[in-house]
Amino acid sequence: MSIETNSQETPIEYAKRATRETAKRLARFFSIRLVLQIITIIIGVYITILVANMGGYVDTILKASIIEEVNMEVSAMVSEKDIPREMREQMVRDLVEERERLAGLDQPFITRSFHHLWNGLTLNFGRARFMVSDHGSRMVRNIILERLPATLLLMGTSQLLLFFVTLSIALAVSRHYGSFWDKLIVAMSPTSSIPPWFYGIFLILIFAAWLKVLPFSGMVDAPPPPTKLGYFLNVLKHLILPAGSLFISSFFINTYSWRTFFLIYSSEDYVDMAKAKGLGDRAIERRYILRPTLPSIITSFALLMVGIWTGATLTETIFNWPGLGTTIYTAISKYDTAVIVGTTIIQAYMLGITVFFLDFLYAIVDPRVKLGGGK
Hints:
MetI-like fold
């Protein structure tokens, strides 16, 4: 939106007014973005609560579990006592009602869903019903914080390496369109449809079972090495197979995608004109190929950073890697709703924050982005 010039204004007054108008547009633009992100996160978290509870069906499962537990406990208590049947049934009913009340099952699911929503948005994840941390805590926050470093190590190593390696190789391959390496990348790209856990099984069979040079699973030997250097090297040894499976599964398709992207921009007319002027290949790549693709590169990198927090559920489970992926898999199998919702909320917040800051970066690196409407 352009700012009209008043002939009676001095240059200083015009500059001040232009600054105020720009500040207003910035505030309006990012306020709208922030509100939309908050609404999106709230809707996403509430849908997660509904799905994790199967629309309330998990309540039926939990009630049945409570009745089974109470019946077993009461049977153990009265096994050596002569207690009338009516009194024993009354004991069961009282204990079931008390435990359902403590679990909140005495309230309608729709009421509790909004209570769960508020607790989730305020990061009050509560207590897990079945899962515990390695230190015996049932607090969902403690369980997530305990498993988070392992996921950050695995996903950070594999995804950052994948991003920078594929970007560099794609740029190099795009310089030699139709070469052997270019054709190899194109031919191998369909192999990325195979999930990383499938590659993980083959890596285990080859390097752990057959060659016996790498460990089968886990994050560190038991017992762990006594020295810090030994512990560090041992973790790296355990990291090779799971990180390698994640890297291999996406290597060819990522390289192919970036290579195609760079080829599209390198065929533009302004690139041909730059070549005609005698600019070197490095200068052309830096000014006329990489710079226009910078918004896409930033977007890919930002979403990669979000993915680092999510973990790889099946891959971590295959390698028994003690991260968030294994935690989510265990929580789903045990219907531990609090843990499922807690990990999902963390991911939702990370995605929302990332998308919000992407708007700032786009405005800096891409002059086509306008902060507001108008001409």
